[in-house]
From TrEMBL:
Keyword Nuclease: yes
GO MF term list: endonuclease activity; hydrolase activity
The protein, known as: Endonuclease
Superkingdom of source: Bacteria
Record keyword Methyltransferase present: no
InterPro entries found in the cross-reference section: Endonuclease-I (IPR007346), His-Me_finger_sf (IPR044925)
Organism: Peribacillus psychrosaccharolyticus (Bacillus psychrosaccharolyticus)
PANTHER family: ENDONUCLEASE-1
Keywords recorded for this protein, A-Z: Endonuclease, Hydrolase, Nuclease
Amino acid sequence: MKKRITSPPIQENDPVLTPYYKDAFGKTGKDLKSSLHNIIDDHNMLTYSEVWQALKFTDQDPHNQDHVILFYSGKSVEKRANGAEDTNWNREHIWAKSHGNFGTSNGPGTDLHHLRPTDVSINKSRGNLDFDMGGSPNPEAPDNYFDYDSWEPRDSVKGDVARMLFYMAVRYEGDNGEVDLELNNKVRNGSAPFMGRLSVLLAWNKADPVDEFERERNERIHSRYQHNRNPFIDHPEWAEAIWEYKK
């Protein structure tokens, strides 16, 4: 497997993003979480149908513009191979849509910051499992492990998973009639609006730093589609400032 090229976090003197995050600098815990929520809250919302075309651009293979990279398997496949058959790719909700029962509604159900193209059959295997370590290798993508209550993605996207879930827990706070999503340190969260395991996600955020693909994806979502950013891609250290601060 190729070693990923990582990118450093955005610095406070960055001429483009410092104004975007100016209200968040210097804060921790609930104050930081609240500030980031206010920054990323209002954005353009796609329909679930529009997500198909968006993913073909956000997750485009940098070496083949006619392909997308599938999230769990890492395979490069034709963009036009999307659909519902097991041999197709489809739209995977990293924050399982049953965790909070938001379905495919505009907002959490169509938010590109946690939607990724995946093999249909692997998507079915993951189902609505929480994230944790351990289990048996997935037959189609043996770098991923799963058991009855959790899913462990391949090493090169562990941090991506964590940062997507951090984003969802900050963006969706229950205001304006939206679901309130929160992270906890459990698995088997069922239909409750929770995802875990938080301690594992924090470890993954450190072990798998932001890379160029993840950074470019964030830029594409911001500039072309939703016009908001995932703060934890720009500042991965903010995850610990929010959640470890609470211990």
